[in-house]
Structure formats: structure tokens, C-alpha cells
Amino acid sequence: MITLGSWLRDVISENPETFRLFGPDETASNRLQDVYEVTDKVWQYRIEELDEHLARAGRVMEVLSEHLCQGWLEGYLLTGRHGVFSCYEAFIHIVDSMFNQHAKWLKVHRELAWRRPVASLNYLLSSHVWQQDHNGFSHQDPGFIDHAVNKKAEVIRVYLPRTQTRCSR
């Protein structure tokens, strides 16, 4: 996740008007904190001296509502821009029905010649069953990937990180 945070920092830096990171939980707790080298969280309420990485403008959209983050990202994609929705694996199920509706819409969308292509809706699942850090058992629930792969291949893709193993001879 730390390496991915550095990569996302570079993506945001190179696409300051067309890429956002959405998430219902702390970006830093997902180890994506390198993005704060080039942007802040968008914050419209009062900003106190002790607050970190809050600004009136920024490329990180963070609020503790999975539904809102999903809706924001879907709308953002419809404007021709790109983004990533980062969420703990255990809480991504909150948007299962929204995911289903988006997948159905994409299927129909692809059949309409007059519709322009829409960027992919990218989920980044953290604190998953295969990698445990500080959240332990409470943040595990691998069912979302099962839910996703039941859709048509022309609409859904699942990518898993490749692990490096050492081979001794």
C-alpha cells in the first residue's frame, strides 16, 4: 500500500484536474499518505490549526459514508474524469447494491452507440483477509470480490497484487 500511495501521488500530480481519490476512511491509515505531498483533502467546514491535510481545494474526497463516496465517484466518472475508491474490505459491502446498479448500467451503456465511453470505477480494497496490519480480524470480509466476479467479463475486471516469493536452491 505504501508503494501504491507513492504511485497515486504521481498520478494526482500528473493529472491535477482529472483524477481524485475517494474514501470513507482515513487515507493515511490505508498507507496512502504519500498523496498528501501533492494534494490535500477537500474540506468546507472550519479548519483548525491542529488539522492536517485539510484545504478548500484538494484531490482527496474523504467522508465516513461509503454510499456518498460511491455516488461521488460515479458522478465524477460521468464527467469524463478518473478516480479510485479506497475502502476497507469489510465495509465495501455497504455499496453492494450501488455496485450492482452501476454494473447493470454499464452493460446497457455499452449497447448505446450515442453514449461516450465512461472510465472504469476502480475499487481499492485495503485491510483485506490476505494482508493484515493494524486492524486485525474486524476488517476482513473477502465476499466483495466474489460478488464482483459474478458479473460479465466485459464489464468487470478484478486485479490482485502479485506477491513475491523467494525461492531457495
Describe this structure in words.
With 169 residues, the protein is α/β, with parallel strands linked by helices. The chain has one domain (2-149): Rossmann fold. Helix content is 28%, strand content 14%. The protein has four helices and six strands, in the order H-E-E-E-E-H-E-H-E-H. It has helices at residues 2-14, 66-78, 96-110, 143-149; strands at residues 19-23, 41-42, 54-55, 60-62, 82-88, 122-126. The protein has a four-stranded parallel beta sheet, with helices on both faces. Strand 5, helix 3 (96-110) and strand 6 form a beta-alpha-beta unit. The model has no long low-confidence stretch (mean pLDDT 88).
Low-confidence stretches: none
Gyration radius, in Å: 17 Å
CATH architecture: 3-Layer(aba) Sandwich
- Structural class computed from helices and strand pairing: alpha/beta
Number of contiguous helices? 4
- What percentage of the residues does DSSP assign to strands (E)? 5-15%
CATH superfamily label: Thiamin diphosphate (ThDP)-binding fold, Pyr/PP domains
Shape designation: globular
Task: List the domain count as a whole number.
Answer: 1
Q: Spatial order of the strands in the main sheet?
A: 4-1-5-6
CATH class division: Alpha Beta
Q: What secondary-structure arrangement, pairings included, does this model have?
A:
Blueprint: H1 2-14, E1 19-23, E2 41-42, E3 54-55, E4 60-62, H2 66-78, E5 82-88, H3 96-110, E6 122-126, H4 143-149
Parallel strand pairs: 1-4, 1-5, 2-3, 5-6
